[in-house]
Amino acid sequence: MMDAFKTFFDYVNALFVLYMIGYASFLFLAVTVGSSTLYQAKRRNLLKSELWGKYYVPVTIIVPAYNEEMTIESSVRSLLALEYPLYEIIVVDDGSRDSTAQILQKAFHMQQVSRPIQRKVPCRQAEAVFETHEFKVPITLIRKQNGGKADSLNMGINAAKYPYFICMDADSVLQYDSLERIVRPVLEEGDVVAVGGAVRPCNGAEIQNGRVVSYHLPDKILPCMQVLEYDRSFLAARILFDKFNGSLIISGAFGLFKKSVVIDAGGYDSTTMGEDMELVTKLHVFCREHNLPYHIRYATDAICWTQAPETLTDLRKQRRRWHIGLFQTMKRHRRMLANPKYGLVGSISYLYFLIYELLSPYIEIFGLITIVVAFALDLINVPFMILFFLIYVAYSAILSLTAFFARIHTIDLKLTALDVLKAIGLCALEVSCLRFILAFTRATALVGYKKKKNSWGRIERKKIQFK
User: Fold this and answer.
1) For 48-75, how does the pLDDT look when each residue is reduced to its tens digit (9 = 90+)?
2) What pLDDT score was predicted for residue 386?
């Protein structure tokens, strides 16, 4: 019996080591490519032609909002500070129970208008439309029946006047040059149907007129660790996938889309919690099935500042929602897996998200349980196990710091000596502790998820200090 256990644990250990080697190799490649791309982009920006400012495409900015009275006014004012010649702002109030709509009406002197909205993609009925033309660009507020974030985005698409639209969260702030930078791929390649922007936590940042005037790592430990996590896990991987048109996700906090293609593909899916990833994956499927030439790009220098959750409860809510959305998207588009019709998107991107995103929490928790059981049965080399774990932590920490400092340098932010020490100290804690807490959260995310499939997944917000 003991021999059978030993054989079983030998196989499990071998598979777990292979899993870790695969993830470590991908992470190394992603961080290396990502850091190199950031430095190249910085050099191009230093040498860029001034002609860029003469070319643009009209853009509609859609801001879905539900109970956002704390942040909505500051968010809209930040959009008015963008340096871009032609755009409009549409706020869609998804049946808020607070004063979101009233605050906007009062702050921007909005008047109710009679404006029919043709529903080219499905959404709930509009209850009232308000407009103002007193500011730099027109601002529209649409109050509608509660239907969820995806339904609100579809309403914004239906009301949009311009051929490209940007979706963003009501608790986020765009950097002053974000529109100019996110439309560049559209100007460079005529077949671009979507562009993702870079999302960074604004905790610890002071922003004036869309410019970061001072920056330091957040005072609280949890959002500070998320800053490091964002650069390692999100930024680097998305830059790598961008190299072969393999991006499967554009953050709902900041993304640019070609309206006509999105409408033809059916718009956002209101039955999923991960409407952002589902739409991007659907665009891959739609364009390939209809033999349409297309590119989905990632703009590393188009920056959106968003609030990272500051409590573990809120962070777990966020990651639970993300994992449910990932599961729904992967299940719905499972025909992409290793299907030659979808090229590298199906053979690399889908496979990566399946193994190292969707299944990773189950694999990691199973590995930990196996280690505990093997230890209890005295079937594990404890010194080797400790050494292996320390090597894993050190390796991941070095890659986290590489990605973090590369991003800090290439967007010209300055850190104090205390921030540098904080980053070095917390990167190991993030890898060794927070990662496994979130793995458990994600592993249990699918329990009872259907009961709240249209929930906005509210987390606590603070008023944005925008000046």
Assistant:
1) 544 455 668 999 999 999 999 888 998 8
2) 82
Residue 331 half-sphere exposure, CB side, CA atoms within 13 Å?
A: 11
Q: Judge contact between 247 and 298, C-beta under 8 A.
A: yes
Coil vs helix vs strand at 296: strand
Smallest Cα–Cα separation from 132: which of 100, 113, 112, 110?
Answer: 110
Q: Which two tokens stand for residue 17?
A: 């080591």
Distance CA 174, CA 207 (A): 10
Nearest to 78 by CA among 195, 168, 163, 201: 168
- How many CA atoms, within 13 angstroms, populate the side-chain half-sphere of residue 203? 21
Q: What is the pLDDT of residues 333-383, one digit of tens each?
A: 999 998 999 999 999 999 999 998 999 999 888 888 887 887 777 777 778
Range with lowest mean pLDDT among 36-40, 207-211, 329-333:
36-40
CA distance 336 to 356: 17
Q: If you write DSSP's letter for every residue of 297-313 in order, what string do you get? A: EEEEEEEEEEPPP-SHH
CB 228, CB 217: distance < 8 Å: no
3-state DSSP assignment of residue 325: helix
User: Is 80 exceeded by the pLDDT of residue 11?
Assistant: no
Tell me how far apart the alpha carbons of residues 396 and 402 are, in angstroms, rounded to a whole number: 10
Q: Distance between CA atoms of 296 and 227, rounded to whole angstroms?
A: 25
From the centroid of its chain, how far is CA 112? 34
Q: Name the packing angle between helices 100-107 and 72-80 (round to 10°).
A: 40
Task: Kindly give, in sequence order, each residue whose CB lies less than 8 Å from that of residue 428, ignoring residues fewer than 6 positions away.
Answer: 393, 394, 397
Question: Exposed, middle or buried: residue 42 (CB in 10 Å: 0-12, 13-18, 19+)?
Answer: middle
- Is the pLDDT score of 280 beyond 50? yes
Domains of the chain: 2-20+358-450 (no CATH), 57-357 (3.90.550.10)
The structure's pTM equals: 0.88
